[in-house]
Amino acid sequence: MRRALLFLFFAMLLSLYPQEGTASGETFAPVDLYIYGEPDGQLEIDAPSSSTVESVVIGDGEQSAGITQEVGRWAIGLYASSNISGDWSGKAWISSNRDATVTLTYTLIQNDENLDTLTLEGDVGSGETVAIGGEDDFSLTGIDDSSLTLMIESSWTAQPGSTPPPPNEGNTTITLEYGSGSRDTGLNIPISHVKITEGSPPSTNEGHSQVMIYLHVSDVFGVNDILSTEEGDYNMRMGPVDGESPWASTVDNVADRGDYVEVQFLWSYEGHTLPAGENDYSVEAGATDLLNDIEWPVNLRTSITIQPKPDVEIDPVTSTSKPAEFGKFAVYTLTVQNTGSGASEFTITL
Asked: What is the phi-psi region of residue 127: left when phi exceeds 0, alpha when psi lies from -120 to 50, beta otherwise?
């Protein structure tokens, strides 16, 4: 076999764009948010560890029974848009010096809009501190990167047959307690908090048949202690939409960029034949977070343009040798096949 390579030109242009619609099977995971500080304080994802209990009075005197009042609002800043969907729940620690039934209303607010409301209710005895809770379904709701606020309202009623505390023990006092390791008052929401999007424009190394792809991984609640910088927590596969199944890449670098983590993937097409022209490629990526320790998958699509690369193979039909006598003709039959990915003209000189 003679192999004549007459022309070689290869170039690649690549740009990532999200596949139509949202990623198939959007992932939701439960996240705990705890209240800290004064009634205009903060919501935080870090569980309280202090031994100091914070509190706010929600029942002051018998005359406060049956009255609904706003206890306070606690907010958390967000770094990205997201969705909330599924069962959400709340927990609150209540202390009282009389037998009472306490009702708390949790309302999640963004941009002055009430997203959903949850009711917590429970009995507390005189001299006791108890945790009350509640659970409900949170309809699919989109949120942006504005602050998310938890408003807490309260009311209480006396338990049937119970009496106020004696005068020497002071007025009826019911308090909401929080902010310590033993008073983990807060809520739990199911949220799709990890996001994977396109990053910087990719770069190519034609000589090594490689493409460097950059993805940005962000989280609704920030990066610190939530997103990993370990290479083993990220993966990506890519392949032609109408061709081979996607094959794996390797992680070249992971870097914390402040508001997001940048992951560089080295995708090699050595040993693979890519179609010429502009074609779509499927990108399947995943990231494992530190908060829930689960993988967050996403499907992207990339458009790759490859300049045609013509190539030719010349084969004799038979391998029988023929003498060419002086002044006479001898017929040699050859086949010419373009084994490249583009059309071209070839000149064969014997």
From this structure: left
- pLDDT for the residue 276: 77
In this prediction, what percent of the chain has a pLDDT beyond 90?
68
Angle CA(185)–CA(178)–CA(193) in degrees, nearest 5?
40
User: CA dihedral defined by 286, 140, 76, 95, rounded to 10 degrees?
Assistant: -120
The amino acid present at 125, given as its one-letter code, is G
* DSSP symbols for 39-84: TT-EEESSPP--SPPEEEEEEESGGGTT--EEEEEEEE--SS-EEE
All domains in the chain, ordered by first residue: 2-27+194-306 (2.60.40.1940), 29-191 (2.60.120.260)
User: How far apart are alpha carbons 14 and 305 in whole angstroms?
Assistant: 7
191 CB-near residues (< 8 Å, 6+ apart) = 28, 29, 31, 82, 83, 84, 220
Taking the C-alpha atoms of residue 332 and residue 329, their distance in angstroms, rounded to an integer, is 10
What pTM was computed for the model? 0.80
- Dump pLDDT digits (tens) for 265-298: 999 999 998 877 777 888 999 999 999 999 999 9
